[in-house]
Amino acid sequence: MAVLVPAAGIGVRMGGVRKPLIELRGKSVLEWAVTPFLDREDVVEVVVAMDAGDLGGRLGRDGRVRTTRGGGNRFESVANAFQSLKSDATLVAVHDAARPFPPPAAIDACIRLAATGIGAVAGIPAIDTLKRVSRNGAIVETPARHALWYAQTPQVFPRDLFRTGLAHCRAGGPPPTDDASMMEGLGTEIRMVDASATNLKITRPEDVRIAEYLVEQRLV
Ligand code: CTP
Ligand code: MG
Hints:
Layout: E1 2-6, E2 23-24, E3 27-28, H1 29-38, E4 45-49, H2 57-61, E5 65-68, H3 74-83, E6 91-94, H4 104-115, E7 119-125, E8 132-133, E9 139-141, E10 149-158, H5 159-170, H6 180-183, E11 190-194, H7 205-216
Parallel strand pairs: 1-4, 1-6, 4-5, 7-11
Antiparallel strand pairs: 2-3, 6-10, 7-10, 8-9
The chain binds cytidine-5'-triphosphate (CTP) and magnesium ion.
């Protein structure tokens, strides 16, 4: 399996901080995010889309890991990483550099599903009721919550499907904010895999405090 790690964001909601480089209890957020993949022998290649900065720590010492240039949005960063793959891995996983605690069990479940030809997306069932709103914030509808999930990463797919999805997206439409949406509508089944609320994405400054707490309490 090959792992693509979009890491080139500029962290606007964090106040202009490059989130993958934030230090969390002695390791960068990026190193936290990638380590559970490096613990797997079936991971043959990890490409981090990131413009500058050395791969420190374990990432710098593991020959499977290298960087490629970032893109102007997440989709372009993922596409760059995909294009630079060197191995003949038949499965492709995408995992956000800003998500430091991907649960090993969820990684494993996603890979197993993808190996059967089904795309797999880690996530959790929606907790709050969600509202669809108009531009000015007026509620348009309240979709049934039981049918709604939050999508996280990892997201794992057969490589051929992934390639088709990328090409499909290039052909038109706005850039997708996650990977599975590139492939929805292509007729291939993609399923949600129940992960964990601890699989948080560092987005705002308070998320760093929460992440530190999770580490201290040994909740991840
Ligand atoms: N990402 C990327 N290339 C971009 C934008 C985002 O590789 N041009 C990556 C981020 O580094 C992150 C992941 O995509 O690992 C999810 O994006 P997000 O959480 O939105 O990070 P940022 O874009 O950095 O944050 P913000 O949207 O607040 O600016
Ligand atoms: Mg962003």
